[in-house]
Amino acid sequence: MRLRQLLPRFIQSGLDAPNPLTARFLLLHTLSHLLMRQIEAEGGYPAASLTEVIYCAEAPKPMAGILIHVAVPDIAGSLGGLAEIAEPRRFLGILVRALEHARWCSLDPVCSEHEGQGPGLLNRAACHACALVPEPACEYGNTLLDRVFVKGMDGGVPAFFRMS
Fold first, then answer.
1. What domain range is 127 assigned to?
2. Residue 38 resides in a domain
3. 0.70 cut: is pTM over it?
4. Would you tell me which of 26, 47, 122, 157 could form a disulfide with 40, CB atoms 3.0–4.6 Å apart?
5. Which of 109, 120, 140 is nearest to 30 (CA)?
6. How many structural domains are present in the chain?
């Protein structure tokens, strides 16, 4: 339902984004932003020094992946620093904390229940308090985000990641 409400605006926008737009893509893209924000908080990387690549396809072979890397290595950090963060034990902690932060936004319930916000109204539950990153860090201009695909919603979309 949430994706169907977004599709007409996406088609009208003419964005060069995945075609077709899927729930898998919204989940991956939002998770990427949540991870970048957590890496910024814990790893000391300014989010503007990071960038993302989303790998998402349904056919001919299904794939789902996220690559977060340093856009330009300089005093803000290096690939070696991100490789250290990607060490499984450390990354698992970052992932868990990113998912915990996704559960609630300081602008909820307004953020979670928004029908559309941001450029072209192409975001649902995503705002500066929870999921947006600096423009250079996002390959889709901070659009096509919905935290509800990650956290779920009571009486609606089930959470992809179950957190107890």
1. 2-149
2. yes
3. yes
4. 47
5. 140
6. 1
Read off the pLDDT of residues 86-113 as tens digits, 9 standing for 90 and up.
889 999 999 999 999 998 899 988 998 8
Residue 20 counted as domain residue: yes
Supply the pLDDT for residue 69. Answer: 85
Pairwise CA distance, residues 78 & 56, whole Å: 26
The reply to whether 160 falls in a domain is no
Collect contacts of 2-5 with beta carbons under 8 A, ≥24 apart.
2/124, 2/146, 2/148, 2/149, 2/156, 2/157, 5/115, 5/116, 5/124
Dihedral in degrees, nearest 10, Cα atoms 158, 146, 134, 92 = 10
Inside any domain, residue 159: no
Which residue type is seen at 84? Answer: E
- In the chain, the amino acid numbered 97 is R
What's the rounded mean pLDDT across residues 50-70? Answer: 90
Here the tokens at position 20 are 């077709």
